[in-house]
Amino acid sequence: MSQKEIGIDAFAITVPFLPNMSGKEIEVIDGIKYYRTNINNRVKNEISDQQKNTLKRINKFFAIGKFIPNVYRLCKREKPDVIHAHAMFFCGIPALIVGRILKIPVFYEVRSLWMLPKDNIYGTFSRKILAKIALKIELMTMRFSKKVFVINENLKDTLINLGIRDDKLIIISNAVNTSLIDQNIKKQERSVVRKKTVFGYIGSITHYEGIPFFIKALKCLKKERDDFQMIIYGSIRDEREMKLIEKSISEFALEEIVFFKGQIAPSEVYRAYSEIDVIVNPRLKNKITDTVTPLKPLEAMAYKKIFVGSDVGGIKDLLNDNDDCFLFESESTESLIKILKEVIDLTDSRKEEILDRARKHIIDNKSWIQNAYKYKKVYLSSIKN
């Protein structure tokens, strides 16, 4: 959408295994044309961190075969100057083949490497093998692409260690749609003066987000003071983690302090922000959280909310020593409690100073528009060459 705002005429092609709820072959959303390559698939795919069926992964791989002719047909019709494919290789390989045939430069975007080992998520031998194969194909896709966009320095370093050339990798970090957020802020009800500081988590319920750890810290903090609450908005991607959260709330007798409000639609997320003073991201440390940057810190600052997060690589890299955020030592209850106390005790003037500076930083450096200009510069450079 932001690329369109700066004069880039873009269209999108969706993969055949994604659901097409409308049943239409072409949809126009926010002025951008979307070509649906599977008009018969109306089954909504479940997004989950649970282990996926091996057969489903294999079927996805073979879906590439029927995706390639569609990409070729549509690129032949639309005549793009560049092809920008998003990971995984289900998109990347068709883009490379069509790009080679039509002599169009192909750019590949990688935002994470899910196949890196973490917390025994693979489980079975077959899943371990599939993960290794997937990683090899991903790396091959990157090597054949003109350039590879990555989300942060940590992911770039990981890919260099895996054999991808430094000069092929371009960092374009996470960003938020500040224009949309400005519109949403206007919709929010007038701020009310709260007697208690309200901490909030908005995102997916997964193990590595560290919500039970945060709840445990609140139990300890409750022994010293009672001027805080916690609201959780989240889509449940890990049922076991949700049960652990519910158990923690009950076991620590925090039912009057911690409230789970379920999933909230993206179009309504501004309502969640209006209920919260401080956004928390208490991520646990692993290979994924050290290389993947969350979006919520940026969104929180754009909505003028204090941000508290763990010092995992993905968050540190995103914030880049930003003094307007509060980081604690990952998985350290003592460090987290110290930060929570500091945040609760902020004076109104100090808080307003932090919020104003943080929001200005987002507008100047972390907006979709800023990223759109970065992409455009790389595209133009490849076309001229």
From TrEMBL:
Residues 65-179 form the Glycosyltransferase subfamily 4-like N-terminal domain. The keyword Transferase applies. GO terms for molecular function: glycosyltransferase activity. Keywords: Transferase. Residues 185-351 form the Glycosyl transferase family domain. It holds the Pfam family Glyco_transf_4. One of its GO terms (biological process) is lipopolysaccharide biosynthetic process. SUPFAM superfamilies: UDP-Glycosyltransferase/glycogen phosphorylase. InterPro entries: Glyco_trans_1, Glyco_trans_4-like_N. This is Glycosyltransferase.
